[in-house]
């Protein structure tokens, strides 16, 4: 009955593809546009920067980040950038279903695992009205059958937006930005975020989690920028 109802609804009120505007049935992105999404290949397994080979990049070899691994679903390029921006700044919350689905195949390691979204500072949360990372992470944790810890970490410093700073200053900008509530002793923590640029924010969050006992911290991000900026 549910499948029949969904089929009838798709025919009577089909969605328009967010990318091309054509009918997409119950989907937000049509099959043709989804098949045409850009892909990531040959990336560093630690920071997911495109490197031309599946080896740890020189930057991670010189200075190992606090996180242990990163998987990005897509590069931050058209139309992925438009999808993320529409969610983040255009309040198109329906897109969380699609973006979360992109990460679902990249299951976390086995063991005692919890899912933690990248937190927003309360001032930014009040301004935006929602945390896009949490909206993506919640259905992802449910699909994986893992605990979702939205309030386990808070952002206690309302830092200058990373995009406004030179790369070399971004790590300094994030120092002391997070606070954990409780212990993560022996846990593998999956951090979920929308976009990874230099990785400084994820690095600081991973460092905070490990200072509270996390045995391993891995990132699952929707999109990765092609190079640090």
Automatic annotation (TrEMBL):
Residue ranges occupied by any Double zinc ribbon domain in the UniProt entry: 9-61
Q: Which InterPro entries match?
A: ComF/GntX_DNA_util-trans, DZR_2, PRTase-like, PRTase_dom
Q: Which Gene3D superfamilies match?
A: 3.40.50.2020
Q: Tell me where in this chain the Phosphoribosyltransferase domain is found.
A: 134-223
Membrane-spanning residues: none
Q: Taxonomically, which superkingdom?
A: Bacteria
User: Per its UniProt record, what Pfam families does this chain match?
Assistant: DZR_2, Pribosyltran
PANTHER family recorded: DNA UTILIZATION PROTEIN YHGH
Q: Which family does it belong to?
A: Belongs to the ComF/GntX family.
UniProt protein name = ComF family protein
Give the species.
Answer: Aromatoleum petrolei
């Amino acid at each position: 009955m549910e499948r029949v109802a969904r089929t009838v609804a798709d025919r009577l009120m089909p969605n328009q593809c967010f990318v091309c505007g054509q009918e997409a049935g119950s989907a937000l992105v049509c099959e043709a546009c989804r098949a045409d999404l850009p892909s990531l290949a040959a990336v560093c397994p630690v920071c997911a920067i495109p490197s031309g080979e599946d080896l740890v990049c020189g930057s991670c070899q010189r200075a190992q980040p606090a996180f242990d691994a990163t998987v990005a679903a897509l590069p931050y390029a058209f139309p992925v950038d438009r999808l993320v921006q529409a969610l983040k700044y255009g309040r198109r919350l329906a897109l969380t279903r699609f973006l979360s689905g992109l990460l679902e195949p990249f299951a976390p390691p086995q063991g005692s695992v919890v899912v933690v979204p990248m937190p927003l500072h309360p001032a930014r949360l009040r301004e935006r009205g929602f945390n896009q990372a949490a909206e993506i992470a919640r259905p992802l944790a449910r699909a994986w059958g893992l605990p979702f810890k939205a309030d386990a970490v808070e952002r206690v410093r309302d830092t200058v937006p990373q995009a406004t700073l030179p790369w070399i200053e971004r790590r300094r900008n994030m120092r002391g930005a997070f606070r954990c509530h409780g212990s993560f002793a022996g846990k593998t923590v999956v951090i979920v975020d929308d976009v990874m640029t230099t990785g400084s924010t994820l690095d600081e969050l991973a460092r905070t989690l490990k200072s509270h006992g996390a045995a391993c911290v891995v990132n699952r991000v929707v999109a990765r920028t092609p190079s640090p900026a």
